[in-house]
Amino acid sequence: MPVEITVRNGSKYEGIFHTAFTEGEPEIILRLAKAVSGKDKKEGAHLISQLIILSKDCMAINVI
Q1: pLDDT value, residue 46
Q2: Which residues are in the Ataxin 2 SM domain (predicted)?
Q3: Are the beta carbons of 4 and 36 closer than 8 angstroms?
Q4: What DSSP assignment string belongs to the chain?
Q5: How wide is the angle at C-alpha 5 spanned by C-alphas 32 and 58, nearest 5°?
Q6: Domains plus CATH for the chain?
Q7: CA distance 2 to 41
Q8: Is residue 60 a contact partner of residue 37, using CB atoms and an 8 Å limit?
Q9: ∠ Cα 29 31 33 (to 5°)
Q10: Which pLDDT tens digit goes with each residue over 5-45?
């Protein structure tokens, strides 16, 4: 399912929601992710095959 995640620094990432771990340090894993706005966006950047976002850094998740 395609999602957009906003992280603590205001950057937004789009990717395919792969899984979320709730044990230990909670995290969300996106596949084929890319930064779409904010400080982390770079022109001509390639897709990130697997992006791990710690839940403490995740501010919002939206299905797109």
Answers
A1: 82
A2: 2-63
A3: yes
A4: -EEEEEETTS-EEEEEEEEEE-SSS-EEEEEEEEEEESTT--TTPPPEEEEEEEGGGEEEEEE-
A5: 120
A6: 2-63 (2.30.30.100)
A7: 18
A8: no
A9: 100
A10: 999 999 999 999 999 998 888 999 999 999 998 877 777 77
